[in-house]
Amino acid sequence: MFTKVRTRIAPSPTGMMHLGTARTAIYCWAVARHFDGEFLLRIEDTDQERSTAEATQAILDGMKWLNLDYDNKEVVYQMNRLERYRQVANDLLERGLAYKDYTTKEELDQLREEQKARGEKPRYDGRWRPENAVGKEIPAGVTPVIRFRNPDDGIVTWNDAVYGPISVSNTELDDLVIMRGDGIPTYNFAVVIDDFDMQISHVIRGADHINNTPRQINLYKAIGAPLPTFAHLPLIHGEDGKKLSKRRNAVSVMQYDEMGFLPETLFNYLARLGWGHGDDEMFTREQLAEWFDLSDCSRSPAQFNMKKLLWLNHEYMKKADNARLVELLKPRLEKRGADLSKVKDLCGLVGFLKERENTLEALADASMLFFADNPVDASSLPGLLKDKEEASFEAMKLFVEKAPSIDWKKDNIYGLMKEIMDEKGVKVLHLAIPLRVLATGAEKTPSIDATLQFIGRDRVLARLKEGMDQWAQQRAGN
């Protein structure tokens, strides 16, 4: 049988790496790591019309971003294995387990229409099975496909690791095309050969593949291959209760990188989307590998919840190393036009702001306050301060006078503010409001002492002096 647990993820490079594919990859990875086995990557690129190099790179990027480390040194590409598929198809032909079918597309279309008109399930009628083709002339100019001769009777049964026992009668299955006329294998044929050659012990995939499984089991038996454990995962639905769709949802893994989510957040969230370990909402990769069991997967579709994902990302951001967040933040800040040299303590700034924001994008937006040099404008202060303008003005004069002499840390800044408030008999708002408006150009900021610290003494004092000059002129004019 199988000497080692081996799992695989086998995406088709016809688009982005989908969230459902990513969750399946995470579960495949977890099973392999749980049993000290191997997790392999295969690219199923036989759809040559739709497969692209860009989509292949998107898959590789998504795997790398999620830190899904696969064990094969070289990724398996189906288009590099065409000769192997031909060999197996020829062997099945020689053993009478497959045959050439010369039915044209037009004939197949006509057959389907006739079956539909009779209320029958559309299926191939076996017209080119050897016993049905005796004396039949091979049509000129028709390139045949190769069909697998499905057993006529019996029942295909497997014990699904998620859904339990599933049975399908062979009378429900027609003869499957395994090789197209251009020599390219069909999905159901190639996947069986690949999984056999790669010694895959556990085939883990979406529940939309359940209908393919009985066909594949018959192919496994035909080529003398051991049957893997099959596990089918319910699909992921969007918040509207419908299957995730790129028209309605962000479904590409790398979109979540662009949106400012940490990879460990998406890894954790997708792992929890259809599987659980008690009430544990957050766990490490190592814990997932230790705890994961396919039997704990739900049989019902999981529902994606952006609010919960944002909460989880906030929790991971709070735990994240500040220096790492700085490196992730820098390109986002530069994209927004920030001059990174303006803030000397980026690590400190990130540590201050990350408690408030739930994505890297939101963190970058909030950080721009500390890089911006908005025009100094004191014109709004009279309206904001009203009858306290005189006291606030005097308090601000004292702040500008004494600020150069303190060690520019938030505790010292607040200490100076407290000293001035006591001396001048004003409340914190009457000092904080003009400090905010003149130093940042905004009426709302995080705590003003920390805000001033991270903007930096020189920039703050230069802006305060300019603002106080404007304010004095306004007052003289009034």
TrEMBL record:
Q: InterPro entries of this UniProt entry? A: aa-tRNA-synth_I_cd-bd, aa-tRNA-synth_I_codon-bd_sub2, aa-tRNA-synth_I_CS, aa_tRNA-synth_I_cd-bd_sf, Glu-tRNA-ligase_bac/mito, Glu/Gln-tRNA-synth, Glu/Gln-tRNA-synth_Ib_cat-dom, GluQ/Sye
Record flagged with keyword Cytoplasm: yes
- Motif 'KMSKS' region per record, residues: 243-247
* Residue numbers binding ATP: K246
What's its top-level EC category? ligase
Can you name a GO cellular component term? cytosol
The record's family statement is: Belongs to the class-I aminoacyl-tRNA synthetase family. Glutamate--tRNA ligase type 1 subfamily.
The UniProt entry, under NCBIfam families, shows:
gltX_bact (TIGR00464)
Q: What role is this protein assigned?
A: Catalyzes the attachment of glutamate to tRNA(Glu) in a two-step reaction: glutamate is first activated by ATP to form Glu-AMP and then transferred to the acceptor end of tRNA(Glu).
Q: How does it assemble?
A: Monomer.
Please give the name of this protein.
Glutamate--tRNA ligase
